[in-house]
Amino acid sequence: MLTDVLQEEGFDVEIARNGFEAIGKINKNHFDLIITDVMMPEVDGIEVLKKAKEIDPDSDVIVMTGYASVETAVQSMRLGAVDYITKPFNIDHIKIIVNRSIDRRVLKRKAEEGEFYKELSKIDGLTEVYNHRSFHQILEAEVNRAKRYNRQVSLMMLDIDNFKTYNDSNGHPAGDIILKQLAWVFTKSCRECDHIARYGGDEFAIIFPETSKKEAAHIGRRLRQTIKDSSFEKEEVLPGGSLTISIGLASFPDDAMDKDDLLGKADTALYQAKADGRNKIVICDTPQN
């Protein structure tokens, strides 16, 4: 009877004749909803519930119980059941409970997808680091936090030297691979609290929360040397035969009063590093090799 009701509602239904068979099916397949009777021989519904939540925690379980077993139903809810159905069945009640459970799952899935796409919108599709828009939002938040708590925040702007030459010689697909590789190096070389972003084109930015200019400069020198010493495919077309980066670094509040000022100072330092011959780090107006 229950099977007929659910099928009439448009659900695909699979039947297990006992608890052992139910657990076997749950082991092999994912079910959005599992309905189990509490009273079954050998393996009862409570054990099926426990096993179902152990095997597939994301599945919803509804237990069926007699009027005299309400305490058991409450116990089932504590073990993770989403609802219970009492006997004798009321068909309309069954429909409401089952549809409510399925609707809840759909809403949950949509919410999770919404969060996923919300996070995805923050990421640069090619390099999988933060994109330009997210960079500005994060920098604004970090500078405001530094102001509030009297902390420091450092900003590093990085640019690939002679990247147009590389692209013109090897093609944009090869250039895309370089961008991905550099983003990976930056991510692996920085701390978990640091924020790496693709600022645009071949330019990257790294935000260092609660980090002095001296500490950030140490990381910058290491990054510049790591890139210089690494091997990149077809880099021999570049001047000097190897791929290098230029870096500009500035800190709040040492060099700037707000977010835009900090960005301007770091960008000016980067421009100076390029003007001074590339493959350099410039800390505000102080060149460092």
From TrEMBL:
Stored Gene3D superfamilies: 3.30.70.270, 3.40.50.2300
Domain of life: Bacteria
Any single Gene Ontology cellular-component annotation: plasma membrane
Signal peptide extent: none
GO biological process: cell adhesion involved in single-species biofilm formation; negative regulation of bacterial-type flagellum-dependent cell motility; phosphorelay signal transduction system
Key words, A-Z: Phosphoprotein
All copies of domain Response regulatory, residue ranges: 1-102
Sites of 4-aspartylphosphate modification: D37
Gene Ontology MF term list: diguanylate cyclase activity
Domain (GGDEF) ranges: 151-286
Pfam family, one: GGDEF
Xref: InterPro entries: CheY-like_superfamily, Diguanylate_Cyclase, GGDEF_dom, Nucleotide_cyclase, Rev_trsase/Diguanyl_cyclase, Sig_transdc_resp-reg_receiver
NCBIfam families to which the protein is assigned, alphabetical: GGDEF
Name of the protein described by the UniProt record: Diguanylate cyclase response regulator
Species whose genome carries this gene: Candidatus Schekmanbacteria bacterium RIFCSPLOWO2_12_FULL_38_15
